[in-house]
Design brief:
CATH topology of the largest domain: Rossmann fold
Strand order of the largest sheet: 3-2-1-4-5-6-7
Number of strands: 7
Low-confidence stretches: none
Radius of gyration: 17 Å
CATH architecture of the largest domain: 3-Layer(aba) Sandwich
Bound molecules: nicotinamide-adenine-dinucleotide
CATH superfamily of the largest domain: NAD(P)-binding Rossmann-like Domain
Distance between the termini: 37 Å
Length: 254
């Protein structure tokens, strides 16, 4: 089960965290993986790890918010069976202290970046008889998280775009779903703790761990395994859905 032999997959933000784990498990399951990341160095490192385990892949340095770059890369790749829209950035702030510049930055990467990939890949999938898309949203799109004004906005938009694509391309054999993780321990989390809570890193790490009723953050492999399932033929009846993967965050926090 969950074999991806012969499949061609693209993972945006595949150079770190969740994307890195997805790229690695996809390659392990037999896919050829295209790692698309702002950081050519990180993408190359992940490809090195894949090749060391006898997997196959390619790297593409790309800013997903740049439509021309995204179009060129996907045209070069040519055939794509699986797209994982994972590249994303975080932001802390409420509506009052979120600046226009920050709002636009989060929008450009987390919303326009997803649109750019969908815009480039859907026609390719249609021409090839179908495909599977998994978009990274967040529990921030489902509950009112404090101080996540712009981030929540961006992840709500990911839900809506994913549903729209699922509806419009049902009969083109394209499945589109989102997953909504709670806190997952990645460089993304370490980075924003360091940036926003300097001097109180350990305290914040524990607080964020305990905000999942299960008592800890998720790990990247747990998230990658759900993405693998949704991308595999075993999930062929699943489209237009969202899956929380959250240690009980949405339904068990009382
Ligand atoms: N870590 C969490 O707790 C968590 C929870 C819910 C959702 N998510 C979502 O999961 C996704 C991955 O998060 P992560 O924690 O693995 O992050 P991460 O920071 O570890 O990795 C993100 C990757 O995206 C790349 N990237 C950022 N901007 C880019 C751009 N403009 N173009 C191309 N690549 C770009 C980065 O270089 C990096 O390699 C994000 O969309 C995030 O919002 C994360």
């Amino acid at each position: 089960m969950f074999k991806l032999d012969g499949k061609i997959a693209a993972v945006t933000g595949g150079g770190s965290g969740i994307g890195r784990a997805v790229a690695k498990v996809f390659a392990k399951q037999g896919a050829t993986v295209h790692i698309i990341d702002l950081s050519a160095e990180n993408a190359q490192q992940v490809l090195g790890e894949i090749e060391a385990a006898a997997g196959k892949g390619f790297t593409h340095a790309c800013d997903v918010s740049n439509q021309q770059q995204v179009n060129e890369i996907f045209q070069k790749i040519g055939k794509i069976d699986i797209l994982v829209n994972n590249a994303g950035i975080s932001h802390i702030g409420n509506v009052e202290n979120t600046t226009e510049e920050d709002f636009e930055k989060v929008f450009r990467v987390n919303v326009k970046g997803v649109y750019n990939s969908l815009h480039a890949v859907v026609p390719i999938m249609k021409a090839n008889g179908g495909g599977v898309i998994v978009n990274l949203s967040s529990i921030a799109a489902l509950v009112g998280l404090s101080d996540r004004f712009a981030y929540s906005m961006s992840k709500g938009a990911v839900h809506a775009m994913s549903l729209s694509v699922a509806r419009d391309y049902l009969h083109a054999n394209i499945r589109s779903n989102t997953i909504s993780p709670a806190r997952v321990h990645t460089p993304f989390v370490d980075g924003f703790i360091a940036k926003n809570y300097a001097g109180k890193e350990q305290e914040m790490f524990e607080k964020l761990s305990k905000s999942q009723p299960i008592g800890r953050m998720g790990n990247v492999e747990e998230i990658a395994n759900l993405i693998l399932f949704l991308s595999s033929d075993e999930a062929s009846f699943i489209t237009g859905n969202d899956y929380s993967i959250d240690g009980g965050f949405v339904k068990l926090n009382t």
